[in-house]
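--- STAGE predict ---
source: upstream dedup step, 1 unique chain passed
mode: sequence only
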Amino acid sequence: MKQKPSKPFFLLLISGILLTTITVLACGGGDWDEDEGSMFTPQIINQPKYTPFFRTLETPFYDGYDDAGASVFKVTNTKEWISFLGNPTSEEAINYWLYDASLKQVDSMIIDLKGKPSNLSLASKKYTLKPVAASAKAISFLYYLGFAKRNEDFVNPETNSWDDKPVKVSKESIVKQVAGGLNFYTKAKEPFLKERYAFQLERLYFFNKDYDKAISFFNDNVSGFSANSSMQWRALGYKAASLYKQKKYVESNYIYSIIYDGYEPLKKSAYLSFHPLQETEWGQCLALTKSTHEKEVLWQLSGLYKDDIIAMREILKLNPASDLVDLLLVRAVNSEENLVTEETDDEKKDQRHTTDKNLLDFLNDMSEQTASLNPVIWHLSAAYVNYINSDFTAGDKQMARAEKYKNTNALNKSEYHLISALGKIRRMKSINESAEKELVPDLEVLFSKETSDIPNFRSSNAREWIRKSIAGLYNKKGEVEKTELIYPGTNQYQFNDLGNLKKMIAYYEKTTLSDFEKLLFNYALLNKADYTELLAIRYAQEDRLDESLAAFKSGSEQPDELPGNPFTIHIKDCHDCDHEASQKVKYTKKAFIEKLIEMKKAAIAKPEEASQNYFLIANGFYNMTYFGNARMFYDNRVDNSIYTYDHKTVPEENSGMALKYYLMALQASTNIEFRAKCTFMAAKCEQNDFFMTVKKDYNGDFKSGIYFISLKKDFSGTTYYSEIIKECGYFRTYLGK
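--- STAGE serialize ---
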C-alpha cells in the first residue's frame, strides 16, 4: 500500500519573535497508526532524524504531529538574544519579555530605560533590563520587540472564542506597518537586528498576500542573513510559501526540499508543504538542483508521497551508496506486512497477502549487491518480504546473507531471529519435535528480557504473532494443554470444565520436559497458581465449598479484597452503593468461601436460624455472579470477563445456585415478610436466567415467571410487597401499574 497525499491542511511555521503560527497550505501526512500489528522495526536503519517519517496510519508523523520546532525556536531565539544583549541578562528575563510581556509593558520599559517615569508591572520590575551593560542594545531590543508584537495583529490575529473568527485588520494598517518595518530595517546597524527586521518584513509581505514582494524582498536581501541562521531558514520558508501560493510548485518544491534536508526544526513542515508533481514539472524541479545530493533528497520526498520503489531506484542510480533510500525501504516493508498475521491456518490460505512483485524483485536484486552502506537492512528486508510471499527458498538465501551481520547490534540480532522464526513458522503445516528444536534458538532470543528491553524493537507484536501461530498448530493436533500454555484463551470457555482445569494444572506439574517445553514454561504468560485459583472459583460456583477452600489454600493467597459486602442484597441492585458503603469485615476470595462454609454449618446445627443463614448464603451465591456486587470473585487471569456477558453458558452468568438457597430459605421460614423477600429474590434469579437465554427476536424488556405470579398471589398484603412496587419497574409493568 502506497502513501496517499491527504487533503490539504495548514502547516505550522513559527514566528521569529513570538511562538505564533502562520498558515501555509500543504499536502501530505501518513496513512497508518504507528506500529500497530507491525513486527518489522524501521529503526534498524539507525537514522534517528528520519523517525518522524516512519510509516503510520492516523497522524502525519510517527512521533505525532507536535510542532517540535516550536520549542527549538524558542530556545534558540532566547539564547541568541542573550548573546546579543550580553550578561547578566537571564534566560528567565528574556523569556518574559519575548513571550509574556504585553506591548504596553514593552513601551513602559523603554521609557524607564530613558530615565522617565513609567508604569511597570511587578513582573517587569523583576525582569528589568537596566542591568544590561549596553543600554542602547536593550532599547533597540525593545523597539524591535514592540514592532514584532504589533505584527502579531496581522500575522496571527486574535480570535473571538465564541465564533472563532479572526479580528479583521485593514489593508492600510498593514501597509503602514510594512513602511515602519522598512524604516527600522534601513536604520538598523547591527547585523543581528537587521536580519530579524528582514524576517519580520518577509512575514508581513506574505500575510499581506503580496507574494511577489515577499519573493523579491528575500532575493534582494538574502545576503543580510547569517549563513544557516534560524532567521535565514524561516525567511526562506516564507519565500517557498509565497511561491506555493502562486502555484509555482516547481520552485517551491525545490526550496522545501532544501529546507527539509538542511534545517531540522522545519523538517516536518517542509515535508508537509512539499507538493507532488506531474512528470514534466518533476523534471523541471530536478533541473533546479545544484548537486547529486539535492536530487537524492527530491527523490526521497517524492518516494514518501508516491512510488517508493521508483524513488529508491532513481536514488541508487545517482548514488549506489546513498543512505537516503533506507527510510523508503523500511516504509515499503512496513506496507507489505499488513496481512502477515494469522496465516498459519489452512482455511485462510485463500486470504493470504499478495506481495508487491515490483518490491520483491527490487529487494532481491538489491540484496545481491554490496554497495549499500547498510547491507543488513536489505538482506533482512528481502528475507522478510520473501517469507511473507511464501517464497521460503529465496527467504532462506537472504537470511544466509544477513547472518554475518546479525550481531552488529542488539536490534539487528533481534530482528534477525524474528524473521528467522517467521520463516520457519509460516512454512509449517504441522508441528512436531523436529520443528520445535528448530524454533528454540530463535525463541530463546525473542522471549528473553534482554530483547524486551531493546528500545524500539516491536517485541510485543512479534511475540503475539509467534504465540498465536504456534498455538494454532497445536490446537489443530488437539494438544489442548500445550496450546493453552503457549497462547492462553485459544480455546475460549474450555475451562468451564473442571476436568480440563485439572489437566492443565497437571501439565504444569510435568517433570520430563523437552527444551522447547522448558522455554515455554519459562516464558509462560500464566502459571499453575492462576489455573488453581480458577479451579477454586469453579468449585465454589458448583457449591463444592470445601474443595474450593482447599484449592484456594493450595495456591497463592490473593490479597485483593472484594469491593463490597458479598452478603448484602437489595431490591434494586446497586453495586456502586455496596462498594462505597462502610464494611466492618473485608473479605478476600478465600475468606468469602470460609464464611459460606461457616453459614452452611450453622444452618444445619441451628434449624431455627436456618432460614437467615440460607438467605445469606443465597446472597453470597447471587453476588458472585455477573449480576452481583462481588464480580471480582470470579476475576482471574485465565478468564477475565467480569464486566461483560456474552450469552454463553458460563457459571458466572448462572443464578441457579442462588435460586436454590433462596428457595431453601423460603421453605425454612414462617415469617410472611421474610418469605416475600425470598420469593422476590427468586424472581430476580429467574429474570437473570431469562436475560442470559432470551432470543434476539423476543419483543419486550423482560418476561414474568412463576415467582412474580407467587408474589402477586401470596404476598400482596405485605409491607415488602409495597416496597417492591416502589423500586422494581419490571414488577410494576407486570402488575400493569
